[in-house]
What does this fold into?
Amino acid sequence: METKSFSELVTEHLMKFEKEIDGYFPSLGEDEFACLRNPSTANAQMVQAGTGVQEELVELQHDGFARDLYSEKNLCDLWFAMCNSYKKVAEPAIQALLLFPSIWLCESTFSVLLGIKSKSRSQLKTPEHDLRCAVANVSPRINALVAKKQAHPSHYLRLLAYLRYVVSLISLFV
It folds into this structure.
């Protein structure tokens, strides 16, 4: 019986893993996203004919304003700017580009939810408000919120009485 080295076992495992992943996620050809990355150099013959997309792509490739926008803006801004002029080409590009940030938001929200649920599982509370605060991109303006609130007079009187008590204790020892 032949014994395999550790590196051979790892290599074999990774090869099997790669085959399994290819079964779930077949590789996409380079030509499928060429139009998305650089519409001016994409091959119009690779786009589905008869739907108007091919014609719009050819028009887009000959549009000088679009070429200038491509050199000035990032891909998302370019396709949003082209959405009105070249709707049939821009909509699939926008859908493909928005897929990645939306997946990232879902994954990060789920991770935050797992953290909140594990912390609050022993407590009888719902995590909706905590989740909303944890995922939001807006930071609270605590100073503005505190400035709008007025301390209750009874709290002020209690604090004043406590401070008098502390001063009297200090004066006993001095």
About this structure: The mean pLDDT is 77.
